[in-house]
Amino acid sequence: MNYQDLLAVVQEHGSPVYVYDASKIEAQYKRLNDAFKKVKQVKINYAVKALSNISVLKLLSSLGTGMDTVSIQEVMLALEAGVAPEKIIYTPNGVSLEEIERAASLGVQINIDNLSILEQFGTKHPKTPVCIRINPHVMAGGNTNISVGHIDSKFGISIHQMPHLKRIVENTKMNINGIHMHTGSDILDIDVFLYASEILFDAAKNFDNLDFIDFGSGFKVPYKEGDIETNIEEFGEKLSKRFNEFCKEYGKKLTLAFEPGKFLVSESGKFLVKVNVVKQTTSTVFAQVDSGFNHLIRPMLYGSQHEITNISNPEGRERFYSVVGYICETDTFANNRRISEISEGDILSFSNAGAYCFSMASNYNSRYRPAEVLWHNNKAHLIRKRETFDDILKNQIALTF
Fold first, then answer.
1. Residue 329 annotated as binding?
2. Of 23, 114, 148, 216, which is least packed with CB atoms within 10 Å of its CB?
3. Cβ atoms of 112 and 121 closer than 8 Å
4. Contact at 8 Å (CB) between 210 and 177?
């Protein structure tokens, strides 16, 4: 996609609008797959929560991915996209036993991350294959809100609770066919990941009938030109070697599984907004756009820095702008950012808008959620309509007073 293509999308579908480049998603999938080509059995399960549009799920499934889901609704979306149940893993946190049983009844792989539910589920369904999510107590990730493998995390069964875990498995005679961890997102240090992997290998030795080991994901992607990222090729080389060694020790060829979300779709996405007002104050020049944290909350929630380009004037003289939204509270996308000179009506493009952007959007201030477009085979395909006022009212019940 070039700037003219993006401007044409806005011309046809209005702003704000999300645009995803299918070729970038395909390239990222191939890159990850190639990094682990020395392992015979590799399974890449796309983390649906990153971007759950059903057309994106269909695209990824056509490439060969399974689906990593965290809710019964995501399981249903994956099934609706035509993904076979056996290619779906369900990894919830803090949900009811009833929801887990419902997912199991659909034939998907169950992944349980607490002792209470493990014992209840194993007692009632001892023959159903279950994966166990371990908390390795490793601090990793680019923000405390997305670091999920540390000692104070709500996720996973503590590695120190292994004796209790084993007792439950032995008492219920349940079928443990996988073991899993996820330490966090935006992991840059390969050695930290490899260290956590050794903890997972040690945990795996406690179970005799494993089919797979799931190492989660969280690989860091670049957010701007020259930004640092996880060296996936080096990581693939090192973990593949160690995984193959472990399979020999274990006496069985296991499947190496991952659940990437951001890695596959983040860089594919552009979020396009129109500048409503350029507002000069005593100390700041604000570019006020027709969107806000109701559509892209990551800068406010995680402090993420999405690169912003004025695609209406990409070669213009750079000036400093604070890009802000139209939500009625502090709503800042960028502070004092160097951007080509902005005029009212210009279109700004936010990079890395493929992951955890539309999927975290809301109707705050009763604003409509944007349209979504998939750029595939050099053509823009509308994959979600922009909401209307009817959508805002759809499930409301108006009382008469």
1. yes
2. 23
3. yes
4. yes
Structure tokens at 326: 């139209």
Say yes or no: do domains 23-265 and 266-387 share a fold.
Answer: no
Angstrom CA distances, 221 to 13, 56, 230, 262, stand at 28, 19, 7, 8
Q: In Å, what is the CA distance from 290 to each residue of 31, 151, 295, 368? A: 36, 41, 10, 11
CATH superfamily of the 266-387 domain: Lyase, Ornithine Decarboxylase; Chain A, domain 1 (2.40.37.10)
Per-residue pLDDT reduced to its tens digit, 318-346: 999 999 999 999 899 999 999 999 999 99
**Which pLDDT belongs to residue 189?**
77
3-state DSSP assignment of residue 194: helix
Q: Compute the mean pLDDT over every residue in the chain, rounded to the nearest whole number.
A: 93
* 176 three-state secondary structure: strand
Alpha carbon 342 to its chain centroid, in Å, reads: 32
Cα 214 off chain centre by: 16
Contact by Cβ (8 Å): 93, 145 = no
Ligand-binding site membership of 195 (annotated): no
Is 90 annotated in a binding site? The answer is no
Check residue 185 and give its pLDDT: 59
Residue 209 forms beta bridges with which residues?
Answer: none
CATH number of 23-265: 3.20.20.10
Against a cut of 0.90, is the pTM above it?
yes
Contact 101, 122 (CB under 8 A): no
- Return the pLDDT at 126: 96
Nearest in space to 75 (alpha carbons), one of 110, 42, 43: 110
pLDDT at 95 over 80: yes
- Closest-CA residue to 203 (of 238, 172, 246): 246
d(CA 90, CA 289): 38
User: Residue 38 and residue 41: Cα distance in Å, rounded?
Assistant: 9
Per-residue tokens: 271: 């979020």
Give the domain ranges of the chain. 23-265, 266-387
Number of residues in the chain: 401
Integer CA distances (angstroms), 365 to 5, 291, 362, 371, in order: 31, 11, 9, 18
